[in-house]
Amino acid sequence: MNTADTVGALTPDALTPGKTADRLPRITPLVDLAGLQIEGELDRAALPALTRALASTAGRGSFSVDLSGLEFCDVGGLRALVTAAAGLRCGHVLTLRSPPPQVRRLLELTGWHQTAGLRLQASSDALPDPAQPP
Q: Which of 55, 65, 66, 116 could disulfide-link 37, Cβ–Cβ 3.0 to 4.6 Å?
């Protein structure tokens, strides 16, 4: 696994009534480059942790979010990612690594794939250099 200590991850202590631990996402920093890895499901219950993690990472410039372990993402989770990308300073990008097909499709249907500061990368692409614009 290419992650370090958990940042902003939801734990059983943060469970809301009716939520199960297996549905909560793991949001961890990437070790190989600036960014986050998200595993599990991103839904309304995960938005506070996701927003905090994105804000703390975005303050450093360009970064990646690895979605290879994402099982589900509702429109709120997708909007949080797109909003983080749109809020980056000129020349910085948020690269979504290995987005699942349903995330790519939703980005295309909404037109959000054209958001300034957002870049999609397939799992087979070479790792991006976050210091270089797309």
A: 66
User: What are the structure tokens assigned to 80, written together?
Assistant: 């949080």
The single-letter code of the amino acid at 58 is A
- DSSP 8-class letter at 91: T
- Residues 65-85: pLDDT tens digits? 999 999 999 999 999 999 999
**Cβ contact 49:39 at 8 Å:** no
Residues 2, 32: contact at Cβ < 8 Å? Answer: yes
Give the Cα separation of 4 and 77 in Å (integer): 22
Distance CA 107, CA 5 (A): 29
As a whole number of Å, the end-to-end CA separation of the chain is 26
pTM over 0.90: no
Distance from C-alpha of 117 to C-alpha of 133, rounded to nearest angstrom: 9
Structure tokens at 129: 């250099």
Query: Quick one: pLDDT at residue 133?
Result: 52
Residue 7's SS3 state is coil
